[in-house]
Amino acid sequence: MNVEGIAPDIVDCAVKIHRGLGPGLLESAYQACLTHDLRKRQHEVECEVPVPLRYDGVLIEVGYRLDMRVDGVIVVENKTVEEILPVHHAQILTYLKLTSLSLGFLINWHVPLLRDGIKRVVLNHPSLPMTYQ
What is the predicted pLDDT for the residue at 54? Predict the structure, then answer.
């Protein structure tokens, strides 16, 4: 399945979970539920994926970890914060750069309506410029 075929499942599962549980839980709870629902839909989900940094030809372990990688091609970063800050956008962009992936979702579960907390981030997509959607 291509990246654009996976993305709607991520959004659909996230909305379903948020409608059922609402805001107020820990990030880890939402991540576990999203992992469960995506796996029920036959997606491969990896959690807390180590991301090394390559600098000057050397692999440097600095403790970066993706919250989730779906089907090896989409990064999902989960937050439970009052508001998404520029540092959160920078974090997911950095993860996309370090993994050479082009699509990520930044999900803030701490909102009344999830549509206000989910941001699609595209970097170097074959047909799109870098965007926040």
Answer: 84
pTM attached to this predicted model:
0.89
Q: Output the six-digit token pair for 70.
A: 């779906």
Which runs of consecutive H residues, i.e. helices, occur in 1-120? 3-21, 27-40, 86-99
**Cα 69 from Cα 77, distance rounded (Å):** 9
**Nearest to 95, CA basis, from 112, 73, 79, 113:** 73
pLDDT digits (tens, 9 = 90+) for 59-70: 888 888 999 999
Segments in the chain below pLDDT 50: 128-133
Report how far residue 47's alpha carbon sits from residue 58's, in angstroms, rounded to the nearest whole number. 25
Q: Which domains does the chain have, with CATH numbers?
A: 3-132 (3.40.1350)
